Amino acid sequence: MSDPALLRMPQHLLALILAQLDSTQSLASAILSHSYIYATFQDDRNRILRAVRVDQMPARTRPYAYLTLAAGQMQPRDRAQVRRFLWSSSWCLDPHSDLGAGFLGRVMKVDSVDPRAVVEGLNSMHAMVEWFTRDFARDTLPLVGSELGLKRPGGMTLSADETFRIQRAMYRFQMYCDMLQSPMDGKGNWLGKRLRRNFFGRFSPWVNEQLACVHDYFERVLSRAFDEVAAHDVDWGHQRINWLANGERNPHKQAYLFRGIPFLHTLAHAPTYAARRALLGPIPPPPACHMLGTTLWKHGSTNGRRELLEWQHFWTRMDDPADPEPYEGEGEEGKGKEGPRWWVDTLWQDDDEGRDGYGTLPFRYWRAAHRDCWQKDVVAGVNARWLRRVGYVMWDEQPEGGKVGELTLRVRVLEGRKAVMLERFRERDAGVRRRVREGRRAREEIYLRGGRGYWKEGDMGEVVWGSGDDYRAG
């Protein structure tokens, strides 16, 4: 019996077929099926592995993964390198550009870089991003129906566009952490204009608000461990670590967030208090000069108030379905296309091929929340913190009665709830602040008497005392 046609094929053609397989499991089955296929794989191992494993990533997400890998290879203090990266990244993130894919090809050709390490790095980061995407859905989707009134036929299942929005924001978060992590050096404004133009300005404010949603989510992931340690650890109590404030008001949390997704993934999987305490260390790291919680608020609104006023003009046209002054564009393309729909579809090119453009639900919810706001509150504003808690600019489903006025009313009611206000300003609550002060004083006393470890109000059973200490409770 003659060999199958596949085994009579030249090796270079067979290698092309192996590179098109959709998973490493399929590749393993193929190379173990025959010695000829195995030999073909060994002859071109790196290229085949790269193609199969990297191609498992969604094509829309891949450019962000490539750029995140590039950011991780930079020296954070090398300003010239960061400037070049910011300039080139705006081109690489163009959905119609192949520069992102070209970057990976250039890295693979560098002799000093192990191609397998590059592929492993891409896949390892994407595995963590996928885990956090599922956790973001578990953390957020239960609130979507009760708070935003969205009906989700798929329940906890994310659509392809929703998954893309979340993962794009997570890769941008990691890219920012790798690119700009540096201690406070008194020169924190050297990148302000470049961040506005190249990192934030490439995206609309509601897409930058998606990054703010992910930032707040990662802060919640961190806070599960940070708040526990800050409220109970004797060392941290002696150092008066603030755990009530969030966002730009808490530089300690911002400094930990700068350690990025790998650190947060490890922290989220730490099984015990001792493990979480060991990861956080004896003291928080020094504040970083370009904290994302602050730069999002300062620079995420792109051109600020002027651009906001320009948007108002187009929003007014979109709200009027009759559009009493039909607009006909110039040339053949604009003829016969009247009203605000033409403005949306033609004049304004939206982000990432229509997933976040004018008329989409992310835009409409963002607009409802920011009809009356100051320039710097357009992105990452404190008033929209609870809206970001429910991921309001991430979802596809249309709410019941989803007209702009009804959306605005729903947003205003949500923002004004007592629980939302208390969460927003919990560090100002007199009762909470009193309990925090009392806990700090108790731990300071224990620290000065030689005690260390875990303290709980009314229970010092887990406090570890130093040698020679004769302190007795009571």
From TrEMBL:
Biased composition annotated in UniProt, kind: Acidic residues: 321-331
Chain intervals for the UniProt region annotation (Disordered): 320-339
Protein name stated in the entry: F-box domain-containing protein
